[in-house]
Amino acid sequence: MSATFPPLARRLDGLQSSAIRDLLKLTSRADIISLAGGLPDAELMPRDRIAVAADAALSDRSRLQYTESPGWGPLRDVLAARESARLSRAVPVEEIFVTHGSQQALSLLSEVLLDPGALVVVEDPAYVGALQVFRAAGARIVAVPLDAEGMRLDVLRELLATGERPAVVHTVSNFHNPGGVTLSPERRRDLANLAEQYGFWVIEDDPYGELWFDRPSPEPVAAYSPNVIRLSSASKILAPTLRAGWMIAPVQVCRGVELLKQGADLCGSALTQQITADLLSDTEWLTAHVDSVRQVYGTRAKALVDAVRARFGDRVSSTDAAGGMFVWAEFTDGTDAQALLARALEFGVAYVPGNAFAVSTDYTHSMRLCFTTSDAATLDEAVARLAKAHAATPAQP
């Protein structure tokens, strides 16, 4: 006899699995070079240093207990010092909240800041994780396009001039995922001013800010206004498995997040937060480690961009990777990137088609390429395979 179950919540209506996560299932074959995943390189993760920190944390059994919902106190102290230096102002510990990765912070903030139907402005192309969170919250999503200097604030101003009042504007300010661009210093100040003028929150999502190649990232948007909530993470500079993210926000926002987090998971992992605090506070070691990661990623980014331009010429335009993990590329010859993907997989290479990040523009001819997990020679081979797949695909009408 087949079971008949009660219905699930209506909030699930219309939600779909991330196209990127689904694609990763197809790219696990050893014969495929994947430019699809947004993963840091495991070979660059400080396994031995993490082991030392874990051993130190495990030396005291009391540290295996639950910790406070806002995060382990010493980690919050370390983060307050780091963020104070980053924002060029004193950030009190009360404004630091540790979460299970910055994605959890984004999810909890959507519950604290958004009522169903509230307007959220995102960038187009958009970070998929943000779209999933805001759609689950029942938000009304409007997209503002990117250009070489990040979110186009002229378009945001036009939206505001029509009388629209967003509850939240979300931006990936540094080395955008997937767009690869960085919000310019002038636009950072202007966005903060607009937030105060029109009374909305800015969520500044910044997991990549320390992964710059040629010059440091600009001062965060959060440096210019208390209306800006800043998110960051140890996943890209240390290891995703630590699941250590954090939020810098006014105390009343932190208290709201705390109430919801208590209902979700009570608290994070005291063990991994102690390990994270150990590594982040070891400033001499951390500086050398992050410098090494930057050097490797910078070399790989250049190799990928050079290979794309050498193999495709003016048939593809791409961003110059100045940091982060991604290159955004667009076919100028009418190639449908989604249609090309099936042929590319046959030739042993994968990428994410641009339509996976689309909100109001379909990005039919675009693709996101990740350079972090392959060396320069492998990246060149990946682009060679992509060029062969492109040549073997009938021209688009």
TrEMBL record:
InterPro entries assigned: Aminotransferase_I/II_large (IPR004839), Class-I_PLP-dep_aminotransf (IPR050859), PyrdxlP-dep_Trfase (IPR015424), PyrdxlP-dep_Trfase_major (IPR015421), PyrdxlP-dep_Trfase_small (IPR015422)
Keyword Transferase: yes
Keywords of this entry: Aminotransferase, Pyridoxal phosphate, Transferase
Domain of life: Bacteria
Every Aminotransferase class I/classII large domain range: 32-386
Pfam families (alphabetical): Aminotran_1_2 (PF00155)
GO MF annotations, alphabetized: pyridoxal phosphate binding; transaminase activity
Cofactor section: pyridoxal 5'-phosphate
GO biological process: alpha-amino acid metabolic process
UniProt subunit comment: Homodimer.
Annotated family: Belongs to the class-I pyridoxal-phosphate-dependent aminotransferase family.
PANTHER family: AMINOTRANSFERASE, KYNURENINE_ALPHA-AMINOADIPATE AMINOTRANSFERASE, MITOCHONDRIAL
Name of the protein in its database record: Aminotransferase class I/II-fold pyridoxal phosphate-dependent enzyme
